[in-house]
Amino acid sequence: MQKVLYVDDEKNNLVTLQIALRKWFDVLTLENPEQAIDILSREDIKVIITDQRMPQITGLELAKQIKEKLPNVIIIILTAYGDNETMLEAINQGGIFRYLLKPWDIKDMKQTLVNAFETHELRRKNIHLVNDLITQNRKLQLAYDEIALLKQNLEEENIQLRDEFIEQSLSTKIIGQSKALRGVLRQLEQVARTNTSILLLGETGTGKELFARTAHTLSQRKDNIMVTINCATIPESLIESELFGHEKGAFTGAAKLKYGKFEVAHLGTLFLDEIGELPLLMQPKLLRVLQENEFERLGGNKTIKADFRLIAATNRNLLTEVEKGNFRSDLYYRLNILPIQIPPLREHKEDIPELAEFFLANFNRKTGKTISLIPKKSLDKLMEYHWPGNIRELENIIERAHVLSPGNKLEFGDWFLQHNNSNPNTSQILTLEEMEKQHIITTLKITRWKIRGENGAAELLQINPSTLESRMKKLGIERPV
Ligand SMILES: Nc1ncnc2c1ncn2[C@@H]1O[C@H](COP(=O)(O)OP(=O)(O)OP(=O)(O)O)[C@@H](O)[C@H]1O
Ligand SMILES: [Mg+2]
Fold this sequence. Notes:
Number of domains: 4
Strand content: 5-15%
Bound molecules: adenosine-5'-triphosphate, magnesium ion
Helix content: 40-55%
Strand order of the largest sheet: 2-1-3-4-5
CATH class of the largest domain: Alpha Beta
Radius of gyration: 47 Å
Oligomer: single chain
Number of helices: 19
Structural class: alpha/beta
Number of strands: 14
Largest sheet: 5 strands, parallel
CATH architecture of the largest domain: 3-Layer(aba) Sandwich
CATH superfamily of the largest domain: P-loop containing nucleotide triphosphate hydrolases
């Protein structure tokens, strides 16, 4: 039962009200108003009824004191006189909940008390809500601070990434001034800015991936992502979900939604390396995406836009693969719009010295070892070799020599000869002309560059010396000085 404190200097009044209300309220009575505040603060009393005219203090004065000390207590004033003016003013100032005239009516009194308690409860809830709001606000502020911090972190990370990217692009600079290489680069620059697919062709290690990166960097999409997928290293069963992604539960094992590379590459570049190895079944699916610029994830029916630029690369002869039935002709023609052929290293040997210097500097930087000189003898060896593994092989050889050279000169010991003689990677067949050139050089080395006469190269090769000379001229074979 709710407690009410009733203050009145007349004992009779106190008792009457107490009895009249006892069914609903526990009325505590008090004759001396000066003790009211004390009692209110000790007991949990939410509502006070006070007489207006008392010898010690008026009800309004008491109300004023209560408001100051216990602002939540609801105050009702009982008065026998109609001093309405003063009461009205007090009510308007918000100090008093209601005033009731004596003699009071029990129904009216009861309803007033019910309202008073309700008001008290509402105010309490209000205070709670306000407090909650303050707490929420504080939490929000903290969250905002955290977001601001994260944003800053991201910005810093971005700057760092950009720096790394710049460093990386420096280290992926295309080296070589030969006509052959510069021609390819010019071609690449022209097509990079368009949105058409590019097909990079070239033997292993010629720099297809490097050119693909360069094409991306030169394109309008350079600030967006370049996604690489190597068709030769992804198992056939996985390649479709790699490219298309899948919805959750699309098949057993698809526990989560997975974004495919088409989607990840949105607004950027998709580099499909070793496209010659793309399974036959996948080829029409890729073609559809390239033609319609949209696709669905596996197990999904929502159509997703695919705005990516395709760069594909292969070391296979795709036309031969088409003839053999390993590559679909429709996809081949779609990809072959802008084919770029990267020459094998043996066709731009003049770039070898610059490339060798470049790789040497890279290894010096990486290891802290300083090998500053490539002696002519070493360079000659590099120039003579036919490089079936192209620039990658050159890079590997330089690295090996860098590790094995004891001093500050890059040296190629016996290991290089062995390497040199080891069967040139059978997948990399030399052209007949190149083969002929190598063979003539080898013969000339044996005869110490003697062409004519007994034990001369012409005799060994069983051809006319002048024929040999004209062949040498045509193939650009000159005696080293
Ligand atoms: N012109 C060049 N200048 C500097 N470095 C190069 C050049 N061409 C290739 N390289 C380097 O040679 C290595 C092999 O190049 P890359 O991986 O691009 O060849 P690839 O054609 O993709 O080979 P594969 O067919 O075997 O995948 C890389 O380390 C690359 O940075
Ligand atoms: Mg590659």
